[in-house]
User: Which sequence fits this backbone?
């Protein structure tokens, strides 16, 4: 498969230019509200408990009770075993349940296990499935393997939307990020996602830009919109706005909503809330006034 | 909601509706400008001999910012005499290490006053504050810093030669990078032990006056740098003054030729940095998205008021549709407007005269049968503005392909083979710069060898650095500015 | 009975051929005793034009040769000159030189060619630079030949002046059209015979004889000539050349050296007919110590 080439220095220069955009006043408030509505609140730890998931679900629906008009988070992202619980907690709030699957985070298992993992999540009520690609196979050049695996998982997803995690921190180059993006989109991804959050670096702006450009080129070619989810490492309102600028100037406004763009982040919400509170009150905020779940 | 949306029409991206950027104007409250500026001669701000002044206009508002002296031959004569005296009595005798210290001081003060200088540069010249803040002013400081270090190391630059200064340098600079061009000219001249008479451009004199204040505040000995404001008549008086030993000019090829002729009967040395019509060449095996960004930087940087602008685009046929589509989408995101707004990509055209010239070329392009396309952005009602413009279906014989427009106007041609594109790229009297975009290293070196131009940007465009020599082949002039080679015009080798 | 000597017909040297002037004109060269030495072609503007066409056609290949190859060819010219020394000594004496001076001049001309042969693959290293720019780019500057150079050889020298000027020009990869000394033209055409047997490609050096006053205005105004070297002191001629040069911004170099001195040979003569080309290319920074994705 022919894949577009990427020049790293050029990508970084472009990112630097996005970051010179100055987002102030009303456009800052609007942008922050859009950003907060795009957050997938996430807990993906070995020590996760029902109590933790319940708290997260509550938080997703009530990000900050003191502030009227704050949207809910886009989704709660959990392991398959907590999907049923999360679904119940979120009810008809509109907040989606996303579940990681396919032997997350390493992806080191058989296809049969991955399909079973996926089906279990979907049958438990997951609206969205976040799968990982087999990075070892990708780096070995077995692109067909990666493609076929994604197709199989997509088939197992049924109505659930499939997010394909490239784990860009393991892909080494931007050329690989681009190639993996194209494989994922052509194999049936509804979303492409940077990272599991378990590998450093997680989402970066250059990686995200390369993926956004892959999405744009796929759209040029097919007319099909694909969603984008940078995950991990985005923790401040300022950086979130820089990501929105990238989306706006690469894909345009059709992508500037939580159907097509998500942030995989946990601590981002509070920083955005603090910024929103500052914009409305004029006073800089402290962490103790915002709930940590 | 369906997860996939398929439309029958050609998929189109929307860059206009929805979330946008509020105005983010840079404050101009902290800057200090006089109502009127004279000349800077022998360390003093002095009134013009003829007592005449002319207004300097903010091209984004068409309002007067200040007025500056209209210099004449008498002012030039005073300035040259001051420069000569400073050269003989002070500067020539000063050890290089001490000259260097003054230049270091100047570099530091420019950095300290960077914000003020950026704001004035954008007010007076119309360029976006993003560019004056991130490019012009930091680079100007960097030039002084770089050449400061050369002042006591000149004997290492020219093997087996004794280095002597030339004497008094007469320097004439353009309006597209006012402070930066002053730095390009003054820093190497002073480092090599010469003294200077500088004439700033008529439409952008203000940062030169601020630079004069910096020289004064740095304690630079009187007369080492003299700045005389005025129009072409002052420039001509400077070039023709028998007391100068060297002419350095950046500007149009037409004026460059006049200067070359004017000094033909003299022993004056010259460097000329003149016009250009650079080819920017995109091969099918390029990193296309970065190449598109390179096209944008190539032609829309500084409103296209750049002698090395990539104003002729050559795209390999197999990727032409894709590149043009991406280019148009990228152009839709360019913000044209108030130079002082931090989000402005393309500021105001420098002068009414220049805007008229650009608009004339737009007409010519259409009349010649080329297909014109402009981005759909809004532009302010007042001030001199031009939307980013591309011309498709142009050919080598079109005037918009042959002549330097000096505005945000790109002429696009396609090509099939390497041979063809080299021939077309070189088929111009100019030879200042060129761009090449391909992922294939051997192809890059083939192209960089064969393109007859002084600066080749491979997989990048419009990059500048004080260590990097800049200057043209053919009618784009001669001599280099920047780097080790930039010393050569300011020394006599014995 | 003494053998009747075969007299040589002196012709022009254009594009590797020895044509007579297209104008059919000539002037007669006399020795000190007003005895006819030879008829010399009175080259015309059209001859010059033909020479420019030949030179331009040769430029690409000559400048594209390896420096090592150019060095060998210059050395070959020296070899050819060495083997024909006697002929040049005779001609110099015919034109008024003493035997000792003539021998010296020819020897010096050979040595000068050897000197510049040695520079062919070295001057680039002296005059190039790698520039440490403050961004992630590799940046270097190298000298490249200016192109077609028109040479007005010194009047007071038949051989050493011409050789001293031509050698650095072609060592640097340029091509040239030289106008021989009007007063002492013999050696120039004989030198052309040396060039023609020295592996030097046709058109790299072209030699005309004729009147300086007639030809310099064409030499300095021709739009396909990139530089003019004038060896002499006539202020009117210098002014004319410099003024005409502005038509296409020609580089003009006026030399007033004593070519018999060793100071009159140095790499800065090569540098005169060179342009500095600076090339930029991004440097990727992925990997140890650099950016990670």
Assistant:
């Amino acid at each position: 498969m022919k894949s577009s080439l990427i020049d790293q220095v050029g990508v970084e220069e472009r990112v630097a230019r996005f970051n010179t955009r100055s987002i102030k006043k009303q456009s800052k408030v609007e942008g922050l509200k859009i950003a907060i509505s795009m957050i997938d609140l996430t807990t993906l730890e070995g020590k996760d408990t029902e109590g933790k998931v319940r708290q997260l679900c509550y938080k997703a629906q009530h990000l900050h009770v003191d502030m009227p008009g704050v949207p809910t988070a886009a989704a709660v992202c959990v392991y398959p075993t907590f999907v049923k619980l999360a679904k119940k907690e979120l009810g008809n709030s509109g907040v989606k349940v996303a579940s990681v699957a396919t032997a997350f985070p390493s992806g080191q298992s058989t296809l049969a296990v991955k399909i079973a993992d996926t089906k279990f999540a979907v049958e438990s009520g997951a609206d969205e499935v976040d799968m990982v690609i087999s990075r070892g196979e990708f780096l070995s050049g077995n692109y067909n393997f990666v493609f076929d695996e994604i197709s199989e998982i997509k088939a197992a997803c049924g109505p659930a939307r499939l997010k394909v995690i490239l784990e860009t921190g393991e892909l080494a180059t931007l050329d690989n990020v681009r190639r993996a993006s194209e494989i994922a989109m052509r194999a049936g991804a509804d979303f492409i996602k940077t990272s599991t959050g378990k590998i450093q670096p997680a989402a970066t702006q250059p990686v995200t830009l390369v993926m956004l450009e892959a999405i744009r080129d796929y759209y040029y070619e097919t007319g099909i919109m694909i969603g984008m989810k940078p995950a991990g490492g985005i923790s401040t309102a300022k950086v979130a706005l820089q990501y929105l600028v990238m989306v706006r100037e690469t894909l345009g406004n059709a992508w500037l909503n939580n159907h097509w763009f998500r942030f995989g982040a946990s601590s981002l919400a509070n920083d955005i809330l603090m910024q929103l509170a500052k914009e409305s009150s004029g006073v800089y905020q402290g962490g103790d006034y915002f709930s940590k779940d | 909601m369906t997860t996939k949306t398929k439309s029958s029409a050609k998929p189109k991206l929307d860059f206009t509706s929805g979330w946008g950027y509020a105005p983010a104007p840079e404050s101009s409250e902290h800057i200090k400008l006089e109502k009127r500026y004279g000349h800077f001669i022998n360390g003093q701000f002095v009134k013009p001999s003829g007592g005449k002044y002319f207004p300097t206009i903010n091209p984004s508002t068409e309002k007067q910012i200040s007025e500056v002296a209209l210099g004449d031959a008498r002012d030039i004569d005073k300035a040259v005499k001051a420069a000569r005296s400073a050269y003989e009595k002070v500067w020539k005798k000063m050890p290089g290490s001490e000259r260097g210290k003054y230049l270091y001081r100047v570099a530091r003060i420019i950095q300290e006053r960077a914000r003020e200088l950026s704001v004035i540069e954008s007010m007076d010249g119309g360029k976006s504050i993003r560019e004056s803040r991130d490019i012009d002013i930091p680079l100007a400081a960097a030039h002084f810093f770089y050449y400061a270090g050369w002042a006591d190391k000149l004997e290492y630059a020219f093997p087996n030669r004794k280095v002597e200064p030339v004497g008094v340098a007469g320097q004439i600079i353009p309006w597209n990078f006012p402070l930066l061009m002053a730095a390009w000219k003054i820093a190497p001249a002073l480092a090599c032990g010469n003294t200077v008479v500088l004439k700033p451009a008529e439409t952008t004199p203000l940062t030169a006056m601020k630079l004069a204040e910096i020289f004064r505040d740095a304690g630079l000995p009187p007369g080492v740098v003299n700045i005389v404001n005025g129009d072409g008549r002052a420039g001509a008086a400077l070039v023709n003054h028998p007391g100068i030993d060297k002419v350095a000019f950046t500007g149009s090829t037409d004026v460059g030729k006049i200067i070359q002729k004017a000094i033909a009967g003299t022993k004056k040395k010259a460097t000329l940095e003149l016009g250009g019509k650079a080819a920017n060449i995109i091969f099918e095996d390029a990193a296309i998205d970065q190449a598109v960004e390179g096209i944008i930087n190539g032609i829309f940087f500084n409103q296209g008021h750049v002698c090395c602008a990539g104003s002729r685009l050559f795209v390999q046929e197999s990727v032409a549709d894709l590149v043009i589509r991406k280019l148009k989408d990228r152009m839709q995101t360019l913000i044209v407007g108030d130079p002082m707004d931090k989000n402005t990509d393309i500021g105001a055209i420098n002068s009414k005269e220049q805007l008229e010239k650009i608009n004339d070329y737009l007409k010519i392009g259409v009349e010649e049968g080329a297909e014109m396309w402009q981005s759909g952005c809004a532009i302010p009602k007042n001030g001199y503005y031009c939307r980013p413009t591309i011309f498709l279906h142009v050919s080598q014989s079109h005037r918009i392909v042959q002549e330097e427009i000096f505005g945000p106007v790109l002429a696009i041609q396609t090509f099939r083979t390497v041979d063809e594109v080299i021939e077309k790229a070189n088929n111009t009297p100019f030879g200042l710069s060129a761009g090449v975009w391909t992922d294939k290293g051997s192809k890059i070196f083939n192209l960089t060898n064969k393109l007859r131009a002084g600066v080749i940007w491979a997989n990048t465009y419009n990059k500048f650095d004080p260590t990097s020599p800049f200057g043209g082949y053919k009618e784009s002039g001669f001599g280099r500015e920047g780097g080790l080679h930039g010393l050569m015009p300011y020394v006599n080798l014995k | 009975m003494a053998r009747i000597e075969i007299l040589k017909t002196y012709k022009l040297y254009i594009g590797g051929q020895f044509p007579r002037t297209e104008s059919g004109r000539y002037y007669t060269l006399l020795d000190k005793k007003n005895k006819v030495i030879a008829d010399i072609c009175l080259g015309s503007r059209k001859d010059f034009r033909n020479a420019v066409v030949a030179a331009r056609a040769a430029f690409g290949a000559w400048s594209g040769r390896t420096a090592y190859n150019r060095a060998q060819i210059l050395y070959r010219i020296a070899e050819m000159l060495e083997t024909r020394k006697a002929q040049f000594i005779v001609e110099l004496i015919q034109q008024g030189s003493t035997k000792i001076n003539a021998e010296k001049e020819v020897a010096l001309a050979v040595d000068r060619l050897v000197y510049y042969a040695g520079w062919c693959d070295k001057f680039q290293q002296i005059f190039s630079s790698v520039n440490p720019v403050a961004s992630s780019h590799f940046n270097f500057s190298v000298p490249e030949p200016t192109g077609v150079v028109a040479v007005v050889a010194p009047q007071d020298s038949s051989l050493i002046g011409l050789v001293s000027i031509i050698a650095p020009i072609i060592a640097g990869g340029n091509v040239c059209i030289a106008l021989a000394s009007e007063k002492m033209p013999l050696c120039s055409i004989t030198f052309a015979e040396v060039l023609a047997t020295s592996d030097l490609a046709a058109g790299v050096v072209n030699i005309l004889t004729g009147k300086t006053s007639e030809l310099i205005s064409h030499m300095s105004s021709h739009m396909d000539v990139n530089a003019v070297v004038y060896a002499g002191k006539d202020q009117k001629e210098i002014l004319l050349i410099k003024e005409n040069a502005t038509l296409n911004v020609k580089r003009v170099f006026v030399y007033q050296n004593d070519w018999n001195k060793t100071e009159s040979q140095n790499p800065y003569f090569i540098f005169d007919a060179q342009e500095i080309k600076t090339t930029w290319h991004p440097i990727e920074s992925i990997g140890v110590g650099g950016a990670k994705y």
Summary: The first helix of chain B runs from residue 73 to 91. The mean pLDDT of chain B is 96. The longest strand of chain B covers residues 63-69.
